[in-house]
Design goal:
There is one protein chain. By secondary structure, the chain is α+β, with helices and mostly antiparallel strands. The protein has a single domain, classed as Aminopeptidase. Helices cover 26% and strands 34% of the residues. The longest helix is centred in the last third of the chain and has 13 residues. The relative contact order is 0.18. The N terminus is likely disordered. Keywords: Transferase. InterPro entries: Acyl_CoA_acyltransferase, GNAT_dom. One of its GO terms (molecular function) is acyltransferase activity, transferring groups other than amino-acyl groups. This is Acetyltransferase.
Length: 201
Amino acid sequence: MLHFKCAKLIFLLAWTVLDTNSKFTGEFMQIKPLVASEQKYWQNVYIEAFPAYERIAFSELLTRQLEETTLKLSILWADGQNVGILVNVELEAKKTFILYLAIDPKIRSAGYGSRTLSLLKELYPGGVILESEQIGTSAENETQRVRRYNFYQKNGLLDTGYLTKNLGGIFHLLASEATVTLDDYLLASKSLGIDVVIGEK
């Protein structure tokens, strides 16, 4: 098992709007940089989607927003409305690590999660990395964990065989491409200021 200590600093820089036609549905979707007028919406979705122990303080995310160009804090937009939120770290070779991805609870089960993952795989063909809560532990939310894990598998985010421990939880490390490495994940974690522990299942 490997142990890594990273400075507790979070950085963010507003970025250019990314838009494309999602091959998953053929429908237009955008990933937009977060602006002041959308912060309340972003925080509401964030708080509802993630338990307190997994959340980095929103104020902390904003504090260093001008000091790290690879960290993106965004709104997901489709069909004329906001549909969710995203925090990701861009890596070399067109790869990215997804720290937070959440669809607005008011419009879940409408296909936006799959469309978002399809779009991200188009934007980052080198590989998309993300974490999914550990399953098989008899957790209180085990059903939800299994559903989420299976959803990612269905959408091409496959289990790498590694477990990660950070932010008070244990997670399966998933990736869309075999070219994704542990070094990619560690680099992203370092840029986020997150202490991580990695072990094989």
